[in-house]
């Protein structure tokens, strides 16, 4: 029932610099802003008019939704935000260069940290400059839920309650939902929607700024597995680029 549009934020400054980002609140690059605008134009072109927006509490997703909706003349839509849609917490890798990490630890360890389902990177220390411990934004989060690192399995666990409690009711009410989030929080949601197994999900990458449309059945399973990118050609190239990050 209903239509769900997933949108990964446009390129961030740290995407451009090749740094692990996670919960660090970096902004969009100029290219990322342009991708977000184009995302909005793609919505218009596909005649897709969301009724409500859900975002993470990170600037790059919030701004992407804002820019895209502004381009679609839908800047006035109601919006809900949750830390549960945040990017995967990248632990001690936050702020580190991907290519250097790959060189230092080798391809296998690098890819295990990036894409394995259940191996998190080492936790970040609370006094690390890239830690979020003590941030006001997370003050209402029970301390035991505040991550210091996450694997994709952890993201599935913390994202699903938001999906069921907040997004599904909007879809059940017949609303078209725009969900603006992140590479790995969207991988977690797509894994759930498409029923992808723990091993296969490692090969799935989400491009920046290209809306992905899912038409849903009454039980909120997709009518078509994998959904449909509004610009499939651009998505192909962009998926390849995400996959190859860290390779010089
Ligand atoms: O750095 C990150 O937080 C993510 C998304 O940009 O990177 P990756 O695709 O390597 O998981």
Automatic annotation (TrEMBL):
In terms of SMART domains, this protein maps to: PGAM (SM00855)
| Catalytic residue positions | 9, 87
Identify the residue position(s) of the site Transition state stabilizer: 182
A GO MF annotation of the entry reads: phosphoglycerate mutase activity
Q: Which pathway does this polypeptide act in?
A: Carbohydrate degradation; glycolysis; pyruvate from D-glyceraldehyde 3-phosphate: step 3/5
Which Pfam families does the entry mention? His_Phos_1 (PF00300)
What name is this protein filed under? Answer: 2,3-bisphosphoglycerate-dependent phosphoglycerate mutase
